[in-house]
Amino acid sequence: MVQAARAEALRTVFVGKRKEAVARLKVERGSGKVVVNGTPIELWGNWVAREKALVPIRIVGEAAGSYNFYLNVQGGGILGQADAIAIAISRALAALNPELRKSFEAYDYHLISGDPRRTEPKKPNRRSARRFKQKSYR
Questions:
Q1: Tens digit of pLDDT for each residue in 46-76?
Q2: pTM, entire model
Q3: Domain assignment of residue 91, yes or no
Q4: What pLDDT, on the 0 to 100 scale, is given for residue 11?
Q5: Which domain holds residue 28?
Q6: Is residue 43 part of a domain?
Q7: What's the total number of domains in the chain?
Q8: Which helix (H) or strand (E) is 67 found in, with range?
């Protein structure tokens, strides 16, 4: 039964969302490669975003080395995309090995559940969502 669940999890597409970024992940057995939009993640120019995206793999360690992760990421900025990648990878690893879920939740609960925060919409007659026009009296 467990083998069937793991084989089924390998065929599933996992999704991670953060702000406007959406990451779709396909997992297969392999040597531990992480490929984002056709390029290896090691070639990402922004090292902060790279490290943020690889947090679930660093938490798990050797257990993630037997899978290849192929991601398609669209929308948002580079850090939102990195967070979406981290969420998708952690959900996939938690589906493959349910004991890893507790370690992800202990590190950061949003790696499994996602981050619900969104930008507040701009209000009419204001410059931004919260800023009012200044008054010189009172």
A1: 899 999 999 999 998 887 888 999 999 999 9
A2: 0.83
A3: yes
A4: 62
A5: 2-113
A6: yes
A7: 1
A8: strand 67-74
